[in-house]
Amino acid sequence: MGRRRVDLVSGVWVLLLFVAVYGVVLNVPVVKASGTIYIRADGSIDPPAAQISSIDNVTYSLTDNVASDTGGIVVERDNIVVDGAGYTLQATWGWGKGIDLFLRSNVTIQNMTIKAFLYGIYLDNSFSNSIVGNNITNNEYGGIWLDSSSNNNSIVGNNISLSNYGIYLESSSNNRIVGNMFANDGLVVWYSYGNVVEDNFVNGKPLVCFEGVSGVKIENAGQVIVIDCDDMNVENLNLSHTSIGIELWNTTNTKITGNNVANNWQGIWLCYSSNNSVVGNNVTENNEDGIYLWYSSNNVIYHNNFVNNTQQMFIGTPGYTNVWDYGYHSGGNFWSDYNGTDANSNGIGDTPYVIDANNTDNYPLMMLHVIPEFPSFLVLPLFMLFTMLAVVFIQRRIPSKQENDR
């Protein structure tokens, strides 16, 4: 018994020695979680032993990876540079904000990996700041969040991925969003205008954002945002794994047709947008809403397939009415959660699909609608053409048959 105990103790010491030696050889980092780091208004760093340093109270550089069990870095000083120096700022509990800028100006955040917070970088009422060349990933709510008149900021050349919303602009205008790469998220605009959005890509395809134009046909995009526009056409796109597939703000007379909008955080947004048509789209398996309407009315929405979205539709402003079908013979939309019957087997549900008091699909489809949508205005001309061809064919066959009978 004593010998076995000695052997066990010896084995433990050998194992500890092995880990110690090879931990050094392989340079395995041992990261200890810390609390929030503050760059104070007077230029000091709190706590003084944090993994960040500055020799001039202007440029602050990380000196090691930072793992925080609360927030990341709170900046209380203007006119500085926070340089990640290639290091990582990471939350250990998926909480807080990686970089917190409140009432700040002329702060540059650069060359840093920020991950696993609720918000990667959060600007609140902060202006003329720069966010450049960072890798911002796996922050649950937003990679970069601009709120409360955070105007005239530059967000340039960042890699942003795996957040519900890659960049979220709320009441923040005249910002530059240029040359960013989004993977499995994208840009969201909410009450924000005059932003320059150029040369960004979502999952390898262009992020298309138009403001104040008309008559544009959008045929190649990884995400579509249309603001203050008229007579736009969003057609035949595959929009998947982004924040919002198609977003319309204050836009009218726009056609959204033949698109596959799937596996996004939200599928289609209509905000302050009326008299548009959403026809013949696949809206499937979006994590929050298939289609979201906010202060939007008189939109025509039919022949779409709403399949397995967490919530098929959301109407945030009661009292606004939209049209959800194209009459009895044509039908409305296919809803995967419709539980009605079809007693006469005509492909249309016997009972309406009720959305709210002002919105009802009177003729829900019992089967998936075939997409792309076939233009209805071609039905009659093609029918007449085929009829004429049939008549000509029959007329030619009759003389041939008569000659053979002779």
What does this structure look like?
13% of the residues lie in helices and 38% in strands. With 406 residues, it is mainly beta. It has 2 domains: 30 residues; 352 residues, no CATH class. The protein has a 13-stranded mixed β-sheet, with no helix packed on it. A hairpin with a 2-residue loop joins β40 and β41. The chain is elongated and about 90 Å long. It starts with a helix and ends with a helix. The N terminus is likely disordered.
The gross shape turns out to be: elongated
Let me know the number of strands: 41
* Largest β sheet strand count, sense and barrel closure: 13 strands, mixed
The total tally of domains equals: 2
Contiguous uncertain segments of 5+ residues? 1-31, 373-383
Share in β-strands: 35-45%
Helical fraction equals 10-25%
Give structural attributes.
single chain, 406 residues, mainly beta, 2 domains, 13-stranded mixed beta sheet, 2 helices, 38% strand, elongated, disordered N terminus
What is the fold's blueprint, element by element?
Layout: H1 2-25, E1 37-39, E2 45-46, E3 52-53, E4 59-62, E5 66-68, E6 73-75, E7 80-83, E8 88-91, E9 97-102, E10 107-110, E11 113-115, E12 119-124, E13 130-132, E14 135-137, E15 142-147, E16 154-156, E17 159-161, E18 165-170, E19 176-178, E20 181-183, E21 187-190, E22 196-198, E23 201-202, E24 205-211, E25 217-218, E26 223-227, E27 233-235, E28 238-240, E29 244-249, E30 255-257, E31 260-262, E32 266-271, E33 277-279, E34 282-284, E35 289-294, E36 300-302, E37 305-307, E38 311-315, E39 334-335, E40 353-356, E41 359-361, H2 379-405
Parallel strand pairs: 1-6, 4-7, 5-8, 6-9, 7-10, 8-11, 9-12, 10-13, 11-14, 12-15, 13-16, 14-17, 15-18, 16-19, 17-20, 18-21, 19-22, 20-23, 24-26, 25-27, 26-29, 27-30, 28-31, 29-32, 30-33, 31-34, 32-35, 33-36, 34-37, 35-38, 37-39
Antiparallel strand pairs: 1-2, 3-4, 23-24, 40-41
